[in-house]
Design goal:
- This protein is mostly helical.
- 76% of the residues lie in helices and 0% in strands.
- The protein has four helices and no strands.
- α1 crosses α2.
- The protein is extended.
C-alpha cells in the first residue's frame, strides 16, 4: 500500500499538474479563480458529468489517456 502524500507533496504535484495541463499563466488564473469565487468541489463534480452516459465518460477518459501516452 502506498504511503500517503504530505500536504506539501500534494500542493507541489497539484501545481505541477496544473502547469503541465494549462501552462503557467492559465494555471495561475485557475488558482486565482478558485480562491476568488466560492467553490463547492462536490457540486462541481456532480455537474461535470451530468447528462453524459457511462459509455461517454469512459470513452472520453480513454481518449485522454491515449493523448497523455502519446505526449510521454
Amino acid at each position: 500500500m502506498p504511503t500517503p502524500m504530505t500536504d506539501s507533496e500534494i500542493r507541489s504535484k497539484g501545481a505541477a499538474a496544473l502547469v503541465e495541463s494549462l501552462g503557467a499563466v492559465e494555471a495561475e488564473r485557475f488558482i486565482t479563480l478558485i480562491l476568488r469565487e466560492p467553490f463547492d468541489y462536490t457540486q462541481w463534480r456532480k455537474s461535470l458529468f451530468e447528462g453524459r452516459s457511462i459509455e461517454e465518460i469512459s470513452a472520453a477518459a480513454a481518449r485522454l489517456r491515449e493523448e497523455q501516452n502519446r505526449k510521454s
